[in-house]
Amino acid sequence: MHREHFSGFLFGLFQLISILSIIPGAPLALKWTAFVVLSWISYHLITKTTTQDPAVDLGLGSAILTQLCIIFDMIFITHSETLKNFQDSHGGKITERSLKERVFWAYNFYTNPRGIGWAHESPHLPTRPSPFTSRLKFVGVQVTRALLYILSECTAYVLNASNPGMTTSDVPLSQSALHWRALGVIGFGVAGYSRINFMHCLLSVVVVGCGFSTPERWPNVFGSPLQAWSVQQFWRCEPLFPSLFFHDYK
What we know:
Elements: E1 4-5, H1 8-21, H2 28-48, E2 49-50, H3 54-77, H4 99-110, H5 135-161, H6 164-167, H7 178-209, H8 231-234, H9 242-246
Parallel strand pairs: 1-2
Helix pairs in contact: 1-2, 2-3, 5-7
């Protein structure tokens, strides 16, 4: 089936409508209309468009569907009056503030899905930098980590390219030796892990370096795989390198 090229415009519009739909005090009819539009955009992007890369299509489709579920919760289940941003110095109900303040509140809420710095923040987030960590120190550490993640990803790609189970055209991977198949899976896992962490580090460098955020609001993305010995621990484990990068930086 022929598919259109993935629309960056529609994806950006999805983000904009999502933020506007969770503005505190917005009419319920407006929220329902926004959610219907978001549902249509999600359906169209997932089923009618492609990036020409099946792996990227799968990742984008999963992310868009996840965002739609999150925005449903933000619109219809979570009540803005019950949420508290500890960096918000204003008093009174959020629904009674000016439109500009409510839009800024919605933007902060939407772009912070883990609730970092809010009352609903999870108590099991990975260790974060000390509040006394300087911006310069934080940026230096994150740049170093980003370079290490690039090296890790490139190493994984080299290993995959050298893997006979993945480069022998006349032998399917499913028929290769178990150790070659395992190495291929590990290689792709390490590459994905490294790429996500690299992007997180790069974003934190830009945002914190420009003064839009502070170091302690940037815990690591993933925890240590050594602590993921149960489903519950999988979501509670500590970050992989907390002591190496952020111990006693004051």
